[in-house]
Design a protein that fits this description.
The protein is of the alpha+beta class. It folds into two domains: 218 residues, no CATH class; 126 residues, no CATH class. It is built from eleven helices and nine strands. Strands 1, 2, 3, 4, 5, 6, 7, 8 and 9 form a nine-stranded mixed β-sheet that branches. Strand 2 and strand 3 form a beta hairpin. It is elongated, with a radius of gyration of 35 Å.
């Protein structure tokens, strides 16, 4: 392999970058300043994008990628970076492609020295390190791919997670003279926010490799960049779902309250307040700001987001990259299928609990229970007794009208 280079993608939620004092905004600015320390001190000639980040981020315009700032380093090789916005994502992409033959490990050490890692208060959608290179004259199929797999095991940097990390083999995906591998870590690889991939193109495919991974004539996301953005959104939503035990606890709590109400229906409670407290608790769990209805709505929105991300992933690179079942593309698709299936099940269970909670018979005690709670109801107030006495006197007086069904005047019977 020759002409090694390092391509870095950073994806952030736009709503966490819009405020100047937000931790995610500070992190983006720190990485952008780090690019300046890497020698990228000038704007890209012939481009209109400014060197510095705008004070206020412009609104997203659908899926259109809008470059907000761009910079490069003069001299041999390529050292460029740009910041962009696409819909609800703000991202940074940087390329270190020296002409002196420095390898991936040295390039990664240089990047880490100048550009900080996110702090605990930063919540990125994800990040990608893409180790690029050109293969030799060998074919990138069959035995050539296997030899490249063996070579990159010693050339690619180890993952910070430690010895459990390993590069997939055989090649994870191949198409049109380009091979791609991904470094996987442990059983929860599909939830990783930070990804590491190796992309190798045949030496005759250098232009195709650049156009697929880095730049297509002008700064902006290429096909692989768009794919990785949508895959980062998918993985972020999967992490949100995996960490979202709150709605499961909410459903369990609601089921417990419903069981209590069923028990109170089967036998009279000692006090009516006991029944009313359970009914109020159920109403809170059903319709509160964090209730069953809200939880089901959020899960439906999460499912739709995952569905859109999966469709955008396919649209970005084409169906041919998903043919290898062991490749990262096919694995990302399986992650989307797993997430949508889990969300479908959870929405169904939440809806069943919510339907059960809407049963009005559970929200009020039966009449026999009320009679057992109050076998001797309290005496009515004095004003009610007076009104009843006056009404009784009025109705007991004889009437001067004819009784129905008779032809002679006579007092109508009362009672």
């Amino acid at each position: 392999m020759h002409s090694p280079s390092l391509l870095v993608h950073l994806f952030l939620r736009a709503d966490r970058v819009e405020h100047r004092d937000a931790p995610d905004r500070s992190y983006l600015e720190a990485v952008w300043e780090g690019c300046g320390r890497l020698g990228m001190e000038r704007a890209i000639p012939g481009r209109l994008e400014p060197l510095e980040l705008p004070a206020a981020l412009p609104p997203g315009r659908g899926s259109t990628v809008r470059v907000l700032a761009a910079r490069e380093a003069p001299g041999a090789g390529v050292r460029q970076a740009f910041v962009f916005r696409s819909h609800d994502v703000v991202g940074l992409t940087a390329l270190l492609a020296p002409s002196d033959g420095r390898g991936w490990r040295e390039l990664e050490a240089i990047w880490d020295r100048h550009c900080p890692a996110p702090g605990d208060d930063v919540v990125p959608l994800g990040g990608v390190r893409l180790y690029r290179a050109l293969g030799g004259s060998r074919s990138l199929r069959g035995g050539g791919a296997r030899r490249l797999t063996a070579d990159l095991r010693g050339s690619a940097p180890p993952h910070p997670a430690g010895t459990r990390a390993g590069w997939s083999g055989p090649c994870a995906a191949a198409h049109d003279g380009i091979l791609l591998w991904e470094q996987r870590i442990g059983p929860e690889a599909r939830l990783q926010g930070d990804r590491r991939l190796v992309v190798v193109g045949h030496r005759s495919s250098e232009a195709r490799l650049d156009g697929w991974t880095w730049i297509e004539g002008e700064p902006g996301l290429t096909a692989l960049g768009r794919y990785l953005l949508h895959a980062a959104k998918l993985r972020y939503e999967a992490r949100v779902y995996a960490a979202g035990a709150g709605f499961r606890g909410l459903r369990a709590e609601a089921e417990e309250v419903l069981d209590d109400l069923m028990r109170l229906h089967s036998r009279p409670p000692e006090r009516i307040e006991e029944f009313l407290a359970a009914a109020r608790g159920l109403a809170r769990l059903q319709a509160g700001g964090e209730g069953l209805i809200t939880a089901a709505t959020r899960l439906r929105a999460l499912r739709r987001t995952a569905e859109i991300a999966a469709a955008n992933m396919t649209a970005a690179v084409g169906e041919e990259w998903f043919r290898d079942p062991a490749g990262p593309f096919a694995q990302d698709r399986r992650t989307a299928q797993w997430l949508t299936a889990q969300l479908d099940d959870d929405v169904l269970y939440l809806q069943a609990t919510s339907d059960r909670a809407r049963d009005r018979r559970l929200q009020r005690p039966r009449l026999p229970q009320l009679r057992e709670l109050h076998p001797h109801p309290p005496a009515p107030p004095a004003w009610a007794a007076r009104r009843r006495r006056v009404w009784s006197e009025k109705t007991s007086k004889p009437s001067s009208r004819n009784c129905p069904g008779g032809s002679h005047p006579a007092p109508c019977a009362t009672g």
